[in-house]
Amino acid sequence: MAEGIGQPTGGQSTGLIRNPQDFWGGVALTVFALFSLWAGSDLPGLRGFAFGPGTAPRLFGWLLVGVSLIIAVNGLITQGPPLERWGIRAPVLFLASVVFFGATVRPLGLIIASFFTLMIAAAASKEVRWVESAIWSAVLTVGCVALFIYGLNLPLQLWPR
Question: 8 falls in which pLDDT band (50, 70, 90)?
Answer without folding.
Answer: very low
